[in-house]
Amino acid sequence: MKIKLLLSTLALGLTSAVFAQDATPLQISGSVDTYYKYDFNKTGNIKTSFANEQNSVSLGMIDLALKKTTGKASFVGELSFGPRGQAQSIPDAAVDATSGSLSSFNIQNLYINYAFSDKFSMTAGYMGTFIGYEVISPVGNFNYSTSYLFTNGPFQNAGIKAAYAFSDKVSLMAGLFNDWNAYQDFNGVSHIGAQLTVSPVKGWTAYLNFLSGHSAGAAGTGTIYDLTTAYQVTDKFKLGLNAADYHVSGGNGGYTGVALYPQYAFTPSVALGLRGEYFKYNIPVVANPSVMSVTLSANIKAGGLTFIPEVRFDNDEDFSQSFVKSNLAPTKSASQFSLAAVYAF
Amino acid sequence: MKFILSFLLLSSCFVITNAQTEQSLPVDEQGKLIYYEVVNVKTPADSLKIRVLNYLKKQNKDLKFKSTQGDTAFIATGKMIINKTLLVMSHPSGEVLYDFQAEVKNGKYRFWLTNFSFIPYQRDRYANFVASTTVGIPLENNPGKLNAGEWKEYKVQTAKYAKDLASKFKFYMSSRTPIIALTTEKKVVKKEW
């Protein structure tokens, strides 16, 4: 009886799927990633976000996203599980304020959008940040390791925002947001943010971003100005740029940095990309330590799978990153090799 | 036993339905993929011209009227979304851009879709699927071994889309409802009276 029921259900399911293709389906997508990293000084020197475990086949995360659009309304819910999506992301959804229990999952996106017209829409909830070039999901980045700009900037912003498209070339977003990376804002909705998007020529888009506010417990008001832009110069060559300046009022910290991302696609399946970054901390008392980093990555794609072999060299003149040699003596430079596999579905 | 037979029958229907759609487009003299059709009708060129223009101007942003060449040729550009589907779940994996052209004569018209180029989508920071580049890859290009399976699927979906669009276009062109020419706004001249 069970077999009959199973076969009938399966057969009906298969045939319904043929006829259901015209219906607007629930979008399910996501990714899985894993990596191996080897630091040539035999220690985990480079401490930018994710992929930090030395000489180990380690886990990234499994990321699951749901999206549904009904008329003008849509929602997105995206959760991730695994080191990249739990303890290494901020915040961990399961951290209990009283017990301090850790690690269940991280909410990447959880928001509702309503498009009042083709030009005007509003969104409320918890969203990936609009600041910066790189993102948490490895599917959205060319390089597997992340930049200092990404690591030190916001990951996500909860809030409410309105976006208006003046034309195909210019649009503006403005919103009210919680503190960085916080599901709940304990000092009220404390940040304002805006993003001006311009697309002056085909293939070139620039985002001018602004976010300012006083986070709970912070020494001052933090304000970040950010330029994120990418230009598809030819069908094979793409150039990206990210520049940001973050200052906390009263000289209470921040950073300034710039990163350049030239990428060349030899074929639709094989591309090579460089990231060159200069990053400087605005630290009170200490004389603004800086770090330079060069990362060379390849993307080799086969269907949903992307292999990312990568080498990275960081130079820290001011010893701000605490790089050490294999004998634990301080050093100014660090280098690493990594091989990551990212599967997107 | 009956249930097993029913299951096999329904499953084979599914396989047949899929197999019927797995056809790619033919290529033209330049080696470009093309959907080409000549249709004979008992309608004068003037009416056909109005119908083509009306059809193109009524389409949403997925097929945009671009220009006319002379008095009888019409050019539009279009976009179709390629979906990665698994049973009832799916998400867009890219878009195919194309050119649509139509020409009319007394008693017949022809139309074709060509210059297909694929733009892959990637998921952005808000988990929306967006174009990863602005420069499309011609669908005729050899994708290499690594992406051969997916590329074949793009071609199959493109062929299916072209066939559907052709059916809709031909249905509109053969419509018996009166076709009204697009009227220009009337101006009142008050100088002379």
Explained architecture:
The complex is a heterodimer of chains A (345) and B (193). In chain A, 7% of the residues lie in helices and 52% in strands. Chain A is mostly beta strands and 345 residues long. Chain A has one domain (32-344): Porin (Beta Barrel). Chain A has a 16-stranded antiparallel barrel with strand order 1-2-3-4-5-6-7-8-9-10-11-12-13-14-15-16. In chain A, a hairpin with an 8-residue loop joins strand 13 (270-281) and strand 14 (290-302). The longest helix of chain A is centred in the first third of the chain and has 18 residues, at 2-19. Chain A starts with a helix and ends with a strand. The model of chain A is unreliable at 9-23 (pLDDT under 50). Chain B has 193 residues and is α+β, with helices and mostly antiparallel strands. Chain B has one domain: Alpha-D-Glucose-1,6-Bisphosphate, Chain A, domain 4 (2-Layer Sandwich), CATH 3.30.530. Chain B is 31% helix and 34% strand. In chain B, strands 1, 2, 3, 4, 5, 6 and 7 form a seven-stranded antiparallel beta sheet that branches. The longest helix of chain B is centred in the last third of the chain and has 26 residues, at 148-173. Chain B starts with a helix and ends in a 20-residue tail after the last helix. The relative contact order of chain B is 0.17. Mean pLDDT of chain B is 81; it is low at 7-21. The chains are: A mainly beta (345), B alpha+beta (193). At the A-B interface, helix 1, strand 1, strand 4 and strand 14 of A face helix 1, strand 4 and strand 5 of B. Chain A: Keywords: Signal. Chain A: Residues 1-20 form the signal peptide.
CATH architectural category of chain A:
Beta Barrel
Show unreliable segments of chain B.
7-21
- Largest sheet geometry of chain B: 7 strands, antiparallel
Taking pLDDT < 50 over at least 5 consecutive residues as the criterion, the unreliable ranges of chain A are: 9-23
Identify the CATH class of chain A: Mainly Beta
Q: Sheet with the most strands of chain A?
A: 16 strands, antiparallel, barrel
CATH topology-level name of chain B:
Alpha-D-Glucose-1,6-Bisphosphate, Chain A, domain 4
Keywords (chain A): Signal
Protein name (chain A): Porin
Signal peptide (chain A): 1-20
Pfam family, one (chain A): BBP2
